[in-house]
Write a structure and sequence with these properties.
52% of the residues lie in helices and 6% in strands. It is mainly α. The strands form three sheets. The chain has a four-stranded mixed β-sheet. Strands 6-8-7 form a three-stranded mixed β-sheet, with helices on one face. Helix 10 runs antiparallel to helix 14, helix 17 crosses helix 18 and helix 19 runs antiparallel to helix 20. The two termini are 19 Å apart. Bound molecules: zinc ion.
Length: 690
């Protein structure tokens, strides 16, 4: 469960640089005193905080800042991601100058990136690098060879509980981690897959927007076939779309996917009977899973549904579907015509982004994906000093203490549940910045000039690394985000948290800013992640990460009822007349926001040791705390991307996350919020879970 939606989101780079320059000159002349860390110009004080807190804290910035043409959304997360990419580029240039030896990580990173940037080599090869795969697909003559190719495509490309990524264009997604009830061994998790559009709703919903997108998607499939030189692209596209629509009909919904209790354990030998249709032994052999004794089947209705389609749907449909996905996912590494067509659909049509990002940014992201911790190691060495790590570890310790005090003071929680909650808090493993042990990339072969081959080898390398975990002791210190990721994540099965180095920077954490700022921004993020260990998901995983509800029934009933009130609060947000936020799909994240903000506020008060905070920039400490929180959710988003997020993401849109301050009594006191202001909630309607 991550802090933000998957697409990274963020003041302008210029504003950040100006702020940094101002700070530098101030420091040169006198000892630094902590700044308020607030972007005053970005606020809109003409709006009452109680009417629209997001507009009050961010309205000035929202009015002054266009979404750049190459972005689907723009805000704090995006600005920091851009800045991180820029830093990575300078790291790459420096290591190229230093001349890293063959086999060194820095050399692999440089070769991977430069191969992506070598457009002339990519153009001259055309789709030749894909020919071996397309030939293998064309050679499929029966259901056995179909199963073999389907199996050979499986990758570790989904994540059911940490990053909650449920999408893969392969028939199934594989995730490897601890067993739900057996934290001492790793298991392969089997998830539904196969769709090119983001979710089943895109195929089945009757809204005009979705119907239009379906037509545009079919045109995109046909365009890809045409570029690759296939005969009769429209007919191929129709077959692919019909097969995916059949898959969508057996797919679980996004809300169902979030329910861990739907998962079942099936022995490998049971798969052919439980999910008839596919040649399972052949598929598993090709996927490197022939010796896995037990599978955790995350989607026990969809897996049999998809397996049945493997038998019932025409072989030609499957071959077209495989060929399309092979071309489509390779598009970023193919000639410009493929890149353009891919962006035209996924960027423009699906996300509403007018222009594609510069190639170097795409290349940096691809490199970061392929060689995640090798890149992260370079980043952390230069940009994440030990002093910052120590300060954030201290902040984490404050938040843990505040959470413990919140548990102690709860009136509704039974004593036995409290004991278990405190146990879970005591064994929580918090990773700050980067992992204790770095991944070893020595077995990954990167070939200069082979952009697509490098990408495919990197994916396969990562898949094998994940499969190797099946034969090794469980590592509770494993990281699920790279250090250069601007985000944070809770890992329920490891009872652990990851706070990557790249999110530990202004405006989230500023070593020169005061406590109100850092607790309101970074503190709320840390509190958010801690609270996931105790929310509707976290309450189901004990101190060892085992799926075992450790709450009494009464406690759980109280929590559920409180959660329903929050779901109703978010259901009432309508970004468009025809579209509401899904309160249940986003409930876990919304609970984490409320609980995290409350814990951060209590930790902030504790840090003051009973003394009132100074007034700075005309704001009290509590006001600055909440303004920093609101500004940490600063974001603008295009309509198409917002619709996509609401359909597929477990996180509510950023503006409503800023507005969640309305659930805290201390926010009402800080800004004298009263009825009938729009965000005002009568005290019984404020959701207080912790
Ligand atoms: Zn979260």
């Amino acid at each position: 469960m991550s802090a933000s939606a998957t697409p990274a989101r963020r003041r302008s780079t210029a504003a950040l640089l100006l702020a940094a320059a101002a700070l530098a000159s101030a420091c040169a002349t006198r000892p630094p005193s902590p700044t308020a860390g607030i972007d005053l110009a970005g606020m809109d004080k003409s709006v009452a905080p109680g009417d629209d807190f997001n507009a009050y804290t961010n309205g000035g910035w929202i009015k002054a800042t266009p979404i750049p043409a190459d972005k689907p959304s723009y805000g704090v997360f995006t600005i920091l991601a851009d800045q991180t990419r820029q830093r990575l580029l300078s790291l790459l240039e420096d290591s190229a100058k230093a001349g890293a030896a063959a086999g060194e990580d820095a050399r692999k990173i440089g070769d991977y990136y430069s191969s992506f940037m070598d457009e002339a080599a990519i153009e001259s090869k055309g789709i030749e690098p894909l020919q071996p795969q397309l030939a293998a697909i064309a050679a499929i003559a029966d259901r056995h060879s179909l199963a073999r190719v389907l199996g050979s495509y499986l990758r570790a490309d989904v994540d059911a509980l940490n990053n909650t990524n449920f999408q893969t264009g392969n028939l199934f997604g594989i995730w490897v981690t601890q067993g739900l009830t057996d934290p001492s061994h790793s298991y392969p998790y089997l998830l539904q897959g196969g769709l090119g559009l983001p979710d089943r709703d895109y195929y089945l919903s009757s809204t005009p927007q979705m119907a239009a997108l379906r037509g545009q998607y079919q045109a995109h499939i046909a365009a890809m076939f045409k570029l690759a030189g296939f005969d009769d692209p429209p007919a191929c596209a129709a077959r692919v779309f019909a097969l995916e629509t059949a898959m969508a009909k057996v797919h679980a919904t996004r809300v169902e996917s979030e329910d861990v209790h739907r998962a079942v354990s099936w022995n490998r030998t049971e798969l052919p009977a439980k999910a008839p249709g596919l040649d399972w032994p052949v598929l598993l052999e090709a996927a490197g899973l022939a010796d896995a004794p037990v599978f955790i089947v995350w989607h026990p209705q969809a897996i049999p549904g998809l397996s049945a389609l493997a038998a019932s749907q025409p072989l030609d449909s499957w071959k077209d579907w495989l060929a399309f996905h092979t071309i489509d996912r390779s598009a970023p590494f193919l000639p410009q015509a493929f890149v353009d067509e891919s962006f035209s659909f996924y960027g423009k049509t699906l996300s509403g982004t007018p222009e594609i990002r510069p190639r170097w940014q795409r290349g940096m992201d691809a490199t970061s994906d392929a060689l995640g911790e090798a890149v992260g190691r370079l980043y952390a060495e230069r940009y994440f000093p030990a002093a910052t790590k120590a300060k954030v570890q201290a902040l984490v310790a404050d938040l843990v203490k505040a959470f413990g005090a919140m548990i102690d003071s709860l009136t509704w929680m039974s004593p036995e549940t409290k004991v278990r909650a405190k146990q879970k808090l005591a064994t929580l493993k918090v990773g700050v910045g980067y992992p204790d042990r770095w991944q070893d990339y020595s077995a990954l072969r990167i070939v200069k000039g082979d952009a697509l081959g490098n990408q495919q080898r990197a994916e396969l390398f990562e898949y094998h690394r994940q499969l190797d975990k099946l034969h090794q002791p469980v590592n509770r210190g494993e990281w699920w985000m790279t250090p250069q990721t601007v985000n944070a994540v809770n890992l329920p099965l490891q009872n652990a948290l990851n706070f990557p180095a790249a999110i530990i920077q202004p405006p989230y954490f500023d070593a020169d800013a005061d406590a109100a700022h850092n607790y309101g921004a970074m503190g709320a993020i840390i509190g958010h992640e801690i609270s996931h260990s105790f929310d509707d998901q976290g309450s189901q995983f004990d101190a060892q990460g085992r799926l075992a509800n450790w709450w009494t029934k009464d406690d759980f009933d109280h929590f559920k009822a409180a959660g329903e009130a929050l779901a109703a609060q978010f259901d009432a947000y309508h970004p468009f007349p025809d579209l509401a936020v899904n309160g249940h799909q986003t409930l876990s994240e919304n609970i984490a926001d409320v609980a995290g903000l409350l814990a951060a506020h209590q930790a902030y008060r504790l840090s003051l040791g009973g003394k009132p905070d100074a007034v700075k920039d005309g704001f009290t400490g509590d006001q600055r705390f909440f303004i920093s929180f609101g500004q940490s959710w600063r974001d603008k988003i295009r309509e198409a991307r917002l619709r996509l997020q609401i359909a597929t993401d477990g996180h509510a849109p950023a503006e409503y996350r800023a507005d969640t301050v309305r659930n805290l009594d201390s926010w009402y006191d800080a800004f004298q919020v009263h009825a009938p202001q729009k965000l005002y909630l009568a005290p019984p309607d404020r959701v207080r879970i912790w």
